[in-house]
Amino acid sequence: MDKKTAPVLEIKSLKDSGEFEGYGSTFGGEPDAYGDVIAVGAYAESLAVHQAKGTMPKLFWQHNSDEPIGKWLNAKEDDHGLLMNGKLNMDVQRGREAHALLKAGDIDGLSIGYRIKEYSVDTDTGVWTLEKLDLVEVSIVSVGANENAIVQSVKAAKAAHDLFEKLKAGDRLTEREFETWLKGLGLSNSQAERAVRLHLKGQGDPADTADDGVAFLRALAG
């Protein structure tokens, strides 16, 4: 499931050619705005896979896959976090705009898009420690522009992830849990509600229709 980190305000350098350096995320410390802590080494496996394939995470504007604005040249972990070296595409309007905004100091944030591979949860605090991540992209972001939307998206993704684990364990989901899980997959409120009506509130014996709903969920999970 794709997720995003809270922005990190650490652009370290910027050249007129469009080359720049900054941290995509930092390790340890206090939980970020979404209640996550990223463990040292969380990116090691993903970076090794990228290196073996000769690929790099994508460089997007505001996590929008329709707006690539350059490319990442290098990515590595150090004691502080995920250090990224990239180059903005100055032949692309959005790349030039991003460069101008960075140069003026109007924006200065980076944020990663990733999939969770391994994690642990502190049941007392609710803090997630992300131990192994599949790094998909690192975006230049304007901090605060979509913060509430991103927070809500991440909260929904976490809830859906927990429900998916419940489903894998063989437990039956309630109607509300089913709806939450579908929203976490990207369905709108109306689409999720309609799916609940179709697959958990069908005709016949309630237990049979509930079993049909679980089968439907398992098919979605692939």
Number of strands: 9
* Backbone structural class: alpha+beta
Distance between the termini: 13 Å
Strand content: 25-35%
Number of distinct helices = 6
Mean pLDDT: 77
- What is the C-alpha radius of gyration, as a whole number of Å? 20 Å
The description of the largest β-sheet is:
9 strands, mixed
- Give start-end ranges of low-pLDDT stretches: 144-153, 203-207
| Helix share bin | 25-40%
What is the count of distinct domains? 2
Specify the overall morphology.
globular
| Helix-strand string | EEEEHEEEHEEHHHH
Report on the architecture of this protein.
The structure is a single chain. This protein is α+β, with helices and mostly antiparallel strands. It has helices at 44-53, 93-104, 147-168, 175-184, 189-200, 206-221, and strands at residues 2-4, 11-14, 19-26, 36-38, 58-61, 64-77, 81-88, 109-121, 128-141. Strands 1, 2, 3, 4, 5, 6, 7, 8 and 9 form a nine-stranded mixed beta sheet that branches. A hairpin with a 4-residue loop joins strand 2 and strand 3. Helix 3 packs across helix 4 (175-184) and helix 4 (175-184) packs across helix 5. The chain starts with a strand and ends with a helix.
